[in-house]
Amino acid sequence: MTPWTAWNDIKEYIPKGKKLYAPFYGDGSLLKNFKKIGFEVLHEKKDFFKVASKIKYDVIIDNPPFTIKKEVFTKLKELDKPFIILCPSSTINTQYMRGLFKDKLQIIIPKKRIQFIKTDDKGVKIPTKTGANFDCFYYCYKMKLKHSITWL
């Protein structure tokens, strides 16, 4: 799961007054994490691929399961809605990202590596001795950021 600090770090880039949709439920902690930093977000345990085109929202913001990131970005392109998606930095080097979003993405680069929280199937935190061994970017589409690359 994504720690609330990862969202807090970019709160100035999250649009105020817009209806946010966080489709990837995980353990449900994203809802309280966004509330903690001052945002209301639509966050329900429903199938993103089935409901995303049927519900009302302005911006998609989330950290999807990395195992389905290609399918997620393909669906995001189809929806053509603004988004901020947290994914591994290596995602930018894939052919599908080049094909889907060449010259259309903006990137926010965190100050440091995000240490994700591991949980069991009941949402209970699993203690770990090591952190993530990869870096992540916030991939932004139609967010009208001032720069193509924003360094935190």
Summarize the structure.
This protein is 23% helix and 18% strand. With 152 residues, it is an alpha/beta fold.
What are the defining features of this structure?
152 residues; alpha/beta; Rossmann fold; 7-stranded mixed β-sheet; 5 helices; 7 strands; globular
CATH architecture: 3-Layer(aba) Sandwich
The main pleated sheet reads as: 7 strands, mixed
The SSE string, one letter per element, is HEHEHEHEHEEE
Shape descriptor reads globular
Count of separate DSSP helical elements? 5
CATH hierarchy, class: Alpha Beta
Gyration radius from CA atoms, angstroms: 15 Å
Main sheet strand line-up: 2-1-3-4-6-5-7
Show unreliable segments: none
Beta-strand content: 15-25%
The span between the termini is 21 Å
The overall average pLDDT, rounded, is: 92
Number of strands: 7
SS class: alpha/beta
Number of domains: 1
Share of helical residues: 10-25%
Verbal overview:
It is a single chain. With about 150 residues, this protein is of the alpha/beta class. It has one domain (about 5-150): Rossmann fold (3-Layer(aba) Sandwich), CATH 3.40.50. It has helices at about 5-10, 30-35, 50, 70-80, 95-100, and strands spanning about 20, 40, 60, 85-90, 105-110, 135-140, 150. It has a seven-stranded mixed sheet. The protein is globular. About 20% of the residues are buried.
